[in-house]
Write a structure and sequence with these properties.
The protein has 228 residues and is an alpha/beta fold. It has 2 domains: 156 residues, no CATH class; 60 residues, Winged helix-like DNA-binding domain superfamily/Winged helix DNA-binding domain (Arc Repressor Mutant, subunit A), CATH 1.10.10.10. It is built from 6 helices and 10 strands; from the N terminus they run H-E-E-E-H-E-E-E-H-E-E-H-H-E-E-H. Strands 1, 2, 3, 4, 5, 6, 7 and 8 form an 8-stranded mixed sheet that branches. It has a two-stranded antiparallel ribbon with strand order 9-10. A hairpin with a 6-residue loop joins strand 5 and strand 6. Helix 4 crosses helix 5. The chain starts with a helix and ends with a helix.
């Protein structure tokens, strides 16, 4: 069942002129605005990777991947019942989390026809007691009744490999390891190692050597990439 969150994003990106739920060949497109196709994807990008690759062959495509920066949990007594508890979740999404998604999307990104749009959002998640289809059942299991956006924040756009350095601001030395990348991103080194893997796969950085056990990278210059 479609969540309120998904419907809100479709309405926002359709604007006044876009059409929603349009059949195109064997696919259903969330939003078509002029000659642009817009896909809304709250779950993993890996689920639409092949679809996006195919659509980009002939169309300009925007993939909207919202980043939940804050979530209010609203617990109901039962499905559709009264509210019994509400609180802010301690978990907060951060921009560097996007590399966890990009790991499974490097076959689709980059592409000249593709733009990845990441709106930062605050949401309310309404939940009620239940196990759903889970094989392992626990006493405090719950099911999500709905997700709703309560506030929009900044929006990031990624079209070229170098755009991902928005998540790692600051000057880089000519050669750097993942500790330097971790410092620029403000994350643990293991997270920077995942980011380095993604950046290398999409052609934003390249391996240039080693220093001890540390792999050294350098940014790929755009002129060099075009020549290649």
């Amino acid at each position: 069942m479609e969540t309120t969150l998904h419907r809100q994003l479709k309405e926002k990106f359709a604007g006044q002129t876009g059409k929603t739920e349009v059949k195109l060949g064997r696919y259903r497109i969330d939003v078509v605005r002029g000659k642009k196709l817009i896909e809304i994807q709250h779950s993993s990008l890996s689920a639409i990777r092949d679809k996006i690759q195919t659509l980009c062959e002939e169309h300009r495509v925007d993939v909207v991947k919202p980043l939940v920066t804050r979530k209010r949990l609203i617990k109901l007594a039962e499905q559709g019942g009264a509210i019994v508890d509400q609180r802010w979740s301690p978990k907060r999404g951060k921009p560097s989390d996007l590399f966890e998604e990009l790991v499974y999307f490097t076959r689709a990104f980059p592409h000249p026809n593709l733009t990845l749009i990441v709106p930062h959002i605050e949401v309310e998640e309404t939940r009620y007691p239940g196990h759903g289809r889970r094989r392992r059942r626990r006493e405090n299991d719950y099911q999500v009744q709905d997700l709703r956006i309560v506030a929009f924040g900044d929006t990031l756009r990624f079209r070229k490999p170098e755009d991902w350095f928005k998540l790692a601001p600051g000057r880089f030395p000519k050669q750097f390891d993942t500790q330097v990348l971790a410092d620029r991103m403000g994350v643990h080194r293991w997270e920077a190692q995942r980011a380095a893997y993604c950046l290398r796969k999409i052609g934003a950085i390249e391996q240039v050597g080693k220093k001890g056990n540390a792999i050294l990278y350098s940014k790929v210059k755009r002129r060099k990439k075009q020549a290649a």
